[in-house]
Amino acid sequence: MTMNNYVFAPMPISTLPVAGCNELFPVSRVFCLGRNYPWGDAQDLVRQAPVFFMKPASSVIEARSELSYPPMTDEFCHEVELVIAIGKGGRDISQEQALEYVWGYALGLDMTRRDLQKAAKANGMPWDGAKAFDESAPMTAILPVSQCGHPNTGAIWLSVNGVERQRSSLEAQIWSVSEVISRLSQSLTLRPGDLIMTGTPPGVAALQPGDVINAGIDGVGQLELRIGARP
Hints:
By secondary structure, the protein is mainly beta. The chain has four helices and 17 strands. The termini are far apart.
């Protein structure tokens, strides 16, 4: 038997719990859809092609108790999103077959260093640093399709300290789950364990240490997180 000789021990893979059992969902890659709800501006008048960016798998954590306030930002913002968990790989997947590739769903937060994003955009630079940092993708347990079906209706919402900031419905998504999967699979081969964050409704705003986030998606999950102290 051939043994791999690594120069150092590989890091453990990122995982999320599966709702209702002791199994773990292994995370491969994290894709994020940049725009998927009407925000009431000129971009909403035309259904533009979806734009994706990525977060590292290591940014995924189970959403529980406290979320660290990241370094290098004074505008740490929340974005509540429906997360698609892919269960089998494929390329050039048709919309008609796309839901066959879904293993389950979760509620996730696309945490963002908004000031870094604004500065990067203003200078025509990539804004990966605004999205890719430790603990930037807290998520609930993965809810298998066998338990929740394919949610395409119901509320998605987020409040801070009891005051609601974001609320919409899954019906308002510009791109459906099947369309998102099909479009992304035209660019690359999807793998089992991939997660797709599907965009956030309007109402994104900054957080302060000590703030308490409550968020939910009907039929998918809810979370509560307290923001930790600044580093």
